[in-house]
TrEMBL record:
Keywords: Lipoprotein, Membrane, Palmitate, Signal. The keyword Nucleotide-binding does not apply. This is Lipoprotein. It is found in: Membrane. InterPro entries: Lipoprotein_NlpA. PROSITE patterns: PROKAR_LIPOPROTEIN. Belongs to the nlpA lipoprotein family. Its main location: membrane. Residues 1-21 form the signal peptide. SUPFAM superfamilies: Periplasmic binding protein-like II. It is a lipid-anchor. CDD domains: PBP2_lipoprotein_Tp32.
Length: 275
């Protein structure tokens, strides 16, 4: 059954998913020494932040601690509760839905890069090769499921009704000539589903965590053109002008970080224009 981020939150908390701190501080919203505590998924956000911490932060006068998370819910609840000063991992449609369903008050500061979503398969080399009745796994949270369906529509394998937005669901599919069956799974489980389904639409960070290269392994990959899903640095409303946050925001869109992203990911993650 398709779930909202509220339901996913309950599942994540029930499973006891925890964050792994990369520093020695307690992580309570920036210690007395002024450390900025930032939550992130491991790839690419954690790697980008680690590059900044190791190469750029000291020169900018920024003390940075990175806490890595294995899901999409706890980084936002931790930020709302003050256990983090900022997080980096999500896109604007997801943040908007999270705020609406959970009553949080989180805002975007800067959008440094786009991790394109892709379709992956162990059985076919192109989405046009999907057989009649094939099963395609998609994320079960509202915004990522809508994003996945839009990608499949862009690839020409389904059509969505006119005006279907970021919250599109299988109910919005108006043309399905291959009679695809959609299997809704928690986003982190999608790479592990590839042996059991004909294809899966996987978020970039989970694909890379599983050793998949979006640029090389995806049988269909999002275009960066007019793409609303760039990842953003988020803070609790009212903290946008925190000098530490401003320093990190500036570093995230710096020439050095853009070059790191290009050299590190070879098209699997794309630098955004910032802002």
């Amino acid at each position: 059954m398709r779930t909202s981020v509220a339901a996913v939150a309950a599942l994540a908390l029930g499973l006891g998913l925890t964050a792994c701190g990369s520093g020695t501080d307690s992580g309570k919203g920036g210690g007395k020494d002024g450390t900025l505590v930032v939550g992130a998924t491991a790839v690419p956000a954690g790697e980008v932040l680690t590059y900044i911490k190791d190469h750029l932060a000291a020169k900018a006068g920024l003390k940075l601690e990175i806490k890595e998370f294995t899901d999409y819910v706890l980084p936002n609840t931790a930020l709302q509760e003050g256990e983090l000063d900022a997080n980096l991992y999500q896109n604007q449609p997801y943040l908007d839905d999270f705020n609406k369903s959970k009553g949080t008050d989180l805002v975007s500061v800067v959008k440094p890069y786009l991790p394109p979503m892709g379709v992956y398969s162990h059985r076919v080399k192109d989405v046009t090769q999907l057989a009649d009745g094939a099963t395609v796994a998609v994320p079960n949270d509202i915004t990522n499921e809508g994003r996945a369906l839009k990608l499949l529509a862009a690839g020409g394998v389904i059509k969505l009704k006119a005006g279907a937005g970021t919250d599109a669901s299988p109910r919005d599919v108006t043309d399905n000539p291959r009679h695809l069956k959609f299997k809704e799974l928690e986003a982190a489980q999608l790479p592990r589903s590839l042996d059991d389904v004909d294809a899966a639409v996987v978020n970039n960070n989970y694909a890379q965590d599983a050793g998949l290269s979006p640029a090389e392994d995806a049988i269909l990959l999002e275009s960066a053109k007019n793409n609303p899903y760039a990842n953003l640095l988020a803070v609790k409303r009212g903290h946008e002008d925190d000098p530490r946050v401003k320093k990190l925001a500036g570093l995230l869109v710096s020439p050095e970080v853009r070059a790191f992203i290009k050299d590190k990911y070879h098209g699997s993650v794309l630098p955004a224009t910032g802002g």
